[in-house]
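Q: What structure does this chain adopt?
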Amino acid sequence: MTLTEQITGLARDAKTASRELARLSSEERDLALQAMAEALAGAGPELLAANALDLEVGKTLGLSSAMMDRLTLNEARIAAMAGGVQEVAALPDPVGRILDERVRPNGLRLQKISTPIGVVVIIYESRPNVTADAASLCFKTGNATILRGGKEALNSNQTIARLMVEAGRRTLGPRFPAAAIQVVPTTDREAVPILLSQTQYVDLCMPRGGEGLIRAVTECSKVPVIKHYKGVCHLYVDREADLNMAESILWNAKVQRPSACNAVETLLVDRAVAVEFLPRAARKLQSRNVEFRGDAQSLELLQGIPDLRMKLATDQDYATEYNDYVLNVRVIAGVGEAVDHIHQFGSAHSDAIVTANEATARKFLTDVDSATVYWNASTRFTDGGEFGMGAEIGISTDKVGARGPMGLEELCSYKWLGWGTGQVRG
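A:
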């Protein structure tokens, strides 16, 4: 069997499965998801063994520390993964909701109802938990999913998907469509353009990963793609900020998990508080060996700190998503300059302001054109779970369709139903 035949068969089976999924009741889907969560929670040794094989592959590939962190499973992450599936099962069913209803003058009654999208392809790097997140969200909404993780995570991804499918079969028997959750079984790069050319079977693609991956997927895909290219997130400390609050938010946003796309990459500080705030913030972040890349003014304020790693920032630095212990810094003159900097170098992902001035905060919230904008809170909250959506399918920085964290509602389309009594159009 050729690669094209193999991938086409995968997509065809997924389309068939999506139609079978649409016939399952909400209760049946939830029972299957609960069984999947229990299976994942009880398979710790098996998942850790599969992940150990992947970690060896990651070392061979020379993955960065941030990518190795994303790849790693441990008992806590397995429990969180299973908990995420359980949370999805407990969420209200978004399918079949009446979104609009009207009766026309001729008596024709129309309803707009939410429906599954159909077949959703998820392409991602490293994080094995994405397999469970994506599969559970798609299954909850009646969508079949085809998962393509990186070659470094193949063993983990296949094990997670197999455990979920086996749990579904035990629970629903023959009513569970085996092709509802599939992992692309090959690491051949040519599989992706073949899969994304299956317009008769595949309805949507959601890539999750670095900018290079997302751009490559977008350029080769013939099916619609929901994307965010990168997470260049900003924290602006205003002249009227509570500096203790700002320091706490910066610590959380930068070093709690720097490999996440919602971690802050650039700190903007108002000139009026820079002398006081920058050195104290730098000393605290130095405990995590954070490297600072700043403009001349910020580096001048930091030069008295012994052994602090720092260098002059370039425009390229300000546009870079590091996913590491590196922080851009710039001293600016007010909220207007902060907004201008974000629009020039940001990625429309997540940006935050710390200030006690409501008028300044509202200007920032209104003027910054990002998917999520915060006042006195960390950018790390840009996450489906933190937004109360359960496990998320991804984060979109697109403006048409879904934007920001994507949960169940964003995995639904809709259709119109019409009830007539013989009406014809004149």
